[in-house]
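Supplementary Data S3. Sequence and structure tokens for construct A.
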Amino acid sequence: MSFLSRIGFIETEEQEQARLAQATEGSLNHYLSTLPVTIEEWPKDLLVELPWEPPRTNQPYRVVVVPMEFRKEALPDGVEEEPVPRKRHSGSWMCAVVFSTHPSYPAGGFRIDVPAAELARGRKVDLAGVQAQA
């Protein structure tokens, strides 16, 4: 647990999981609440395979993205600062799709907006490992 979580400035893993689980069953956030965080670092410029497997989708898809630009979560009108504890994985990332088996998300520079909570539950892709397998 990080220092900021211990002092209550940022939500703990358990608090984040509980917050995501409050979303409607079948929603992306509810699905994400069932997955562990696998990427703790700042994801900019990493290759990340998104968690697109049932029950999120009717069949598994492989979608690999490169997070390029962080977008802060908008606060409600009249609120000037995010309440404490702050969300552990807030905001979203504009990502380039670099590999995809999903028909709606073609590779080759197609851009998608991905919640930070989803990226944190993705799988980091190691190109050196992929090339060694080829």
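Construct B, processed identically:
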Amino acid sequence: MSSQLIERIFSLYEQNNPLIAVESPLQERISLLKNLTQKCINSGMNCYLWMLEDDKLYQLRMNDCELAFSEIKEYKRIAFKVVREDSFEILRFWKTSQLQGILILEGIYPWLGQGATDADSSLTAEWIKSALINIKLYNHNSCKTALLLGSNASLKSDIAGLIPTITQELPTVEEISDYLPQILPDSITQGAMRFCEVG
């Protein structure tokens, strides 16, 4: 169901965009990660995932149609974070790492939106924006793309123009109706179709 989204991401990747912002509803996240990982595998490239909550870097693979995660030991997170920016060591790492492919970054959007109210948060947000701009400049034409992923891709105007943004909508009723026969047994699908026609 997210094949068009994956094609749009890969189109931007093939145009050597080192940064892409993707807004995807949580309900579609697993499907998006599976489809993106499979497309990367089919294209002979790596797909990585970093999440703010555990600050670890994983390589994504498919194992019997399910996502498999293997931790990348090359990424050394800062264990004792002295300043808030230490939580985003991944941005420094990705800029200079020899790893190539697509790095999915989850948990960055709240720092790039309109929400920072105190001075410390504002400074962290500015540091993150600066790190992203450095990635864009340093990794241009490097076969590396950082993909910012979250439920709400609202970016402040000072950085929004630098990062192409793709939005994934929830599927329509028609798209769901077209998809159900592919995953459900005929008896369930026919019953569901009769229910939709009556309702």
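The mean pLDDT is 85. The helical segments are 3-14, 29-42, 89-96, 109-112, 119-138, 157-160, 173-183, 186-198.
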